[in-house]
Amino acid sequence: MKRSNKIFGVTALFDTPDQIIHAAKKTSSEFKDFDVHTPYPVHGMDAAMKLKPSKLGYITLAFGLTGAGLALLLMFWTMSVAYPMVIGGKPFFALPAFIPVTFEVTVLLATLSTVFGMLTFFFKFPHNTHPLHDTDYMKAVSLDKYGVFIGAEDEKFSIEKAKEFLGSLGGKSIDVVYDVDKNIFDAFSPKFLGIVATVAIVVSAGTYITLNKVMYTTPFNWMDNQFKSNPQKPSDFFADGSYNRPPVKGTVARGFIPYEFTGQTADKVLGVVNPTIPSEANLKLGQKKYLTFCSPCHGNYGDGDSRLRGQFPNPPSLHTTKLREWEDGQIYHVITAGQNTMPSYAPMVTREERWAIVNYIRVLQKAKNATQADVDEVRKEMASNGK
Amino acid sequence: MASSGTYTKKELPQSVMRLGIILLVSGLVIGLATFALDSKRAVFNYLLSFVFLLTIGLGSLFLIALEYVSNAAWSTPFRRVAEFFSSYLPVLLFVALPLFLFLVDLFHLTHPAPDDKILTGKLPYLNIPFFIIRVIACFAIWIIYYLYAVRNSRKQDETKDQTLTRKNLVASAIFIPLFAITATIASVDWLMSLEPHWFSTIFGVYFFSGSVVASLAAITYTVVKLREKGYLHTGVVNDHYYSFGSLLFGFVNFWAYIAFSQFMLYWYANLPEETFWFINRWAGYWPVISIGLIIVHFIVPYAILLPQPAKMDPKRLKFASLWLLFAHLIDLYWLIMPQYHSDKNHPLLYILEIGFPMAIIGAAIIIFYLNFKKHNAVPVGDPKLQRGLDYRV
Q: What is the ipTM of this complex?
């Protein structure tokens, strides 16, 4: 380390912990800019040096509380608000299950902030060297000696006075330490950059080769080859040569209700009861589905005047006497099973939607064949509703 | 660096004895009044008071053993206080005797329904004769260690024989595993088998954590108070409190950790044969105590003891240790009393319930006073004493 002519301070070595406690007591009452170095923590040193309690704890506390808050917020947001999932029948905000994570994050932020707070506020990062480094004094106090250092920044400091003072305490190897040129390491020197680049390349290459090549050589196959059956693959085991197993006869898919009149004509389907109530919401649903799926052929009002006139045979009107006298179940049957050229609409509209369409067709039929009495009744009702 | 200071033996003032007698007598009167009004409730209260003092005595005995096996010096100037507290154990064996008369009231295990397959399956362990044998065997182990270690310690006051420390070290090393087993057995016998259908494999540790908190709190309070009035070695300084504060803080956290571990596993698995114990503690007014326990036994003492200066400040330490003794009483109340409140609309706390705890605290003060009168309050012959007095943060 290159040193300047500027004096940094005076150091002295002591032999026993008792001596160093005594020296620390005396020095702390005489000088302000001083420090004590020991090879291990000596009990009672804080009091002897008149040190105030460290403020580091407040950083730890603040970041620990932040960690607890952040962890709870993260889990609250992901588990209870953004993507709520039922896990083990527990509530979305399952506090007992969150406590271990909260604890871990609290400890993580508290410890990291303690380390970085210490580096920044107390070790003056990015300053990464110190004039006392690389001196005989530092080597001695790292081994078996106890040292006192008096800094040149102190207003009472002079070399003679400091030397005499330390000598009077019984200090040995009293030495003057000169300041270093700069106490920030030059991170942009070609040599240092070269070392960093070499280390980066070696570590990345080593990691890549280890994780992608070495770890995949036999006997590590990481379950790449497994004795398992994949769908669509031929099988030596099953007689039909396929791994895909057909479902057992009579299997019913989840959410699927079998239709019992498949393959029959509409006039045989009698006595099926419409399970829905033609409420406003139900009719709105029926209208929407009718306009989407039925109106292209049957027309917007069920007159059989389709928008596809000519491309397909025209369907009959929905307002014939036959259809008006049909049961709901019969219309439902035609939608479900199809009739003549009309295909089954069961894959496109659900059971509830089909019944809603039936209800909507009933509305269309009523509207086309309304009497004066019906109109009067509707007007009366609308008037009583204030429309 | 050697600390100066002397110890001169002094007796505690008569007012301490008077306080103890007043507490004991008035507590007994109230307790017997409770017994006349509601005998079952009184028996449960008596059990609560018994376990309260048992945990303090056991925890102190453990701390004595811990000092010997870890060769700790910081606690040597205060070991006598722990020894005085563990002298409750021989007395507690006699305090336990009335409980044997009321085992039927206390323990459902004594009269299982004939079709109760779980309890009949547990009968080989949970039956009255074996229960009494276990209680006596556990007390025997504790008392033998107590008498051996304390006699050696007192002999050392006069002879200054350093081999006695070595003897106690060996005895303590043998005692600590035995302590782990006997404390678990005691916790199962006195607390867990109040609800014999329920089981918790961590219960012994829970009992242990609570008892160390209670005994540390009792020792800390006594040490701070005795030093203030000048009954201890004059070489004791505030730095000596630091380890008490740290240990209290540590064991408060340990208690919370164990309590939470027990709760979370049951909560997560959600099995009816395990959760009913907690559901019983959530019925009626019980959430007040269940939630209150977290605040009283963890959050408040945690906040008080967290700052470093608090661990050396006599005022805050005294407050924290009294608070924790109270919290331990609440903890035991939470463990024991729901077994009595079989109908959930029963009033939660009852003014007469103060009787037996008062009496037991009074008895504790009297025993402590008599011990203090008879023996040195500092182990003056212990080779580690000077090292302990020299301790600085």
A: 0.81
